[in-house]
Design goal:
Elements lengths: L4 H11 L14 H11 L4 E3 L11 H10 L4 E6 L7 H15 L13 E6 H10 L6 H6 L5 E6 L13 H15 L2 H31 L4 H37 L28
Parallel strand pairs: 2-4
Antiparallel strand pairs: 1-3, 2-3
């Protein structure tokens, strides 16, 4: 941050040991900053609030109440949003619509849900398995932790302007879709299959027409050549799709993501999760 936020917090840390500060060497983005905070926190839960306080401190007791009711991840849903440009609102709608279409996220009550509270179990799971380049919100929601929801009305920003630029939004969208689906790679496979089918149909159609009419015209040659080109192009695209599928599997294996998430154990002593979830105060 370019303001004095870090210095002010540091001054309070000297007088109040309950206040903690993790100051990064550079502006790495909100998701990296949140991960740094999660890796250094020691409480039963972690709560995210933006520095501009558009959520408001009154959101804290509400998300804690949902956690006490049994939710491992508590999400906030904004009831209204700042009126941006038509293009910005259309892009936001398209993003949330596409994200909500994936099977791993169809359990959400609202596609605009954003995690605000993580339990100790969710924190441990995230710090251990989350990849480097990812959308923190989408990654947490697709782990199928028990969810809680609270709605709120965003407050007006009192100072400054949003640093959420178009470049950052595009980068977030790219990280989101590359992380949750291999469609960008396997799509070439299906495109290649379609091209091969069209090429074969063109070649067969041209040959049959030439045989039935007992003559070979220039149109037949052109149509047949187009079929050969489509066939060869389709084979190349299919090869790219197969390579993309293998690359996705290698990437999925290297990032060491969890294959499943355990919500509860009964009469089983687990040796895989040494951190027991905290006792929720009544």
């Amino acid at each position: 941050s370019t303001d004095r936020t870090g210095n002010i917090i540091l001054d309070h840390c000297e007088t109040n040991p309950s206040i903690k500060l993790v100051r990064l060497g550079s502006n790495c983005g909100s998701h990296v900053a949140c991960r740094a905070g999660l890796e250094h926190c020691s409480g039963d839960v972690a709560i995210f609030l933006t520095a501009d306080l558009q959520e408001g401190p009154d959101l804290v007791p509400r998300v804690i109440e949902k956690w006490r009711e049994g939710a491992e991840v508590v999400c906030s849903i904004a009831q209204s949003r700042d009126r941006g440009s038509l293009l910005s609102n259309a892009a936001a709608w398209l993003y949330y619509y596409l994200v909500g279409r994936f099977d791993r996220l169809k359990h959400l009550e609202d596609r605009r849900a954003i995690p605000r509270l993580l339990s100790r179990k969710a924190i441990h799971h995230y710090c251990q398995y989350a990849p480097r380049n990812h959308n923190m919100t989408v990654w947490l929601l697709q782990q199928r932790f028990p969810l809680g929801y609270v709605s709120y009305t965003p407050l007006a920003r009192k100072h400054g302007s949003s640093k959420w630029t178009l470049r950052k939004r595009i980068q977030l969208a790219v990280n989101t879709f590359l992380d949750i689906t291999p469609a960008f790679l396997t799509g070439w496979l299906f495109l290649g299959m379609a091209m091969v089918l069209l090429g074969l149909l063109a070649m067969v159609g041209s040959g049959l027409h030439a045989l039935l009419t007992s003559r070979l015209a220039n149109a037949h040659l052109a149509f047949g050549i187009s079929g050969v080109v489509a066939l060869s192009t389709g084979l190349i695209l299919m090869a790219m799709g197969l390579l993309g599928t293998y690359l996705w599997r290698i990437y999925d294996e290297l990032r060491n993501g969890p294959e499943y998430t355990v919500q509860r154990l009964a009469n089983i002593a687990s040796c895989l999760t040494p951190d027991q979830p905290p006792v929720r105060p009544g």
